[in-house]
Amino acid sequence: RGPNVVVVGGGPGGATTAKYLKRFDPxxxxxxxxxxxxxxxxxxxxxxxGGLAGMDSIEQTYGALKDQHDVNVxxxxxxxxxxxxxxxxxxxGDTLSYDKLVLSPGIDFxxxxxxxxxxxxxxxxxxxxxxxxxxxxxRDQLRAMDDGGVFVLVAPGNPFRCPPGPYERASMxxxxxxxxxxxxxxxxxxxxxxxxxxxxxxAGWEQLYGDMIEWVPSSQGGQVEQVDPATRTVYSDGGLTxxxxxxxxxxxxxxxxxxxxxxxxxxxxxxxxxDQLSFQSERNKDIFxxxxxxxxxxxxxxxxxxxxxxxxxxxxxxxxxxDQEMLPLSTVNTCYSLVGPDYGITVAxxxxxxxxxxxxxxxSGGVSPxxxxxxxxxxxxxxxxxxxxxxxxxxxG
Length: 397
Ligand code: FAD
What we know:
The chain is an alpha/beta fold. It contains 9 helices and 25 strands. The longest helix has 23 residues. It is globular and about 65 Å long. Bound molecules: flavin-adenine dinucleotide. The site of flavin-adenine dinucleotide has 38 residues, from α1, α2, α5, α8 and β22.
């Protein structure tokens, strides 16, 4: 039997790691622990809100990992990790031993950061920042809203999962309103002064939605401090400014997933410091942390980043098991956003390990041009679907 690696979390980070470990070294014993039988990707979830896609279009399952890639998929939750004994204990009662452990647990929310918002409240006032049931709740509330209503989206400060995500969401909700509830309004209350692809988003909003979308930066009342769930009202400026919503979507500030916090792998930023060459935890030599949960230098917290980090950590583990040094791999990220069904924009970058951290390669990547034809924007929208199909096939297929 070959070395034994346990991977925690079947999102893009963990699923890619498990698949590529087996691909790089078929003798390796790879176990993936994930509680959900069906994973809903956050990518594409805004398209569901916009009415462009159904919930089934963002479902991924683990059959191919099991049947085609010989990964031992265990449907359970890791309750505790004992780093000294190199064991994980599952909520179902079993214990798994490991030689190396990879964590890709994603994010959890800092529910105490905003007065009045909690996990219990999120069932009524969704964050929809983990896809699945939360996406469904928000979609159904938008569908039930009367024409002329106000959708308020509270966006977090940096760093957070998917920097362009809130603005794609505002775009998709505006698209849905334009089709079905044209007197309605979208207000983004932002806990920052600028955002990803801002110029491109704002030009697209003006062109497609006129003044339907209003963006309020933190200095002008966007920094929400308190939520009153009963009246769907949010307060900023020490209570002086308030906004009432018909549909309220609160995306709270975030931190590394709970299991990483509880194992002592996060620092006081709430995220996990790693050696950015191998993704080995700075806190434990047998544990690796990737995806949204880790601090990955210049790389944003995205599904594409998690996927590319999954390949890098698989290579690092296989090489270390063979007493080989890790090579500085290039990693990559692309984030497509739909401003409308035929209006796509992108940001892309290539990264390389240098001077102790992951940095962008000068001259690589870039964003969509600010001036472009309809045909160009339409083509980028088609590429967004192509990106979705290829990243999910690479991860779960
Ligand atoms: P996750 O995807 O969160 O996966 C973590 C998994 O770990 C979960 O399945 C969870 O069940 C499991 N888990 C957690 N704790 C345990 C435990 N104790 N035991 C076992 N399992 C556990 N990214 C892009 O690249 N492109 C996009 O267009 C894009 N759009 C987005 C739009 C929105 C609205 C949002 C919210 C995000 C978007 N993202 C996008 C970001 C992307 O979804 C995340 O960055 C990505 O999911 C991170 O992957 P991960 O593996 O780190 O974590």
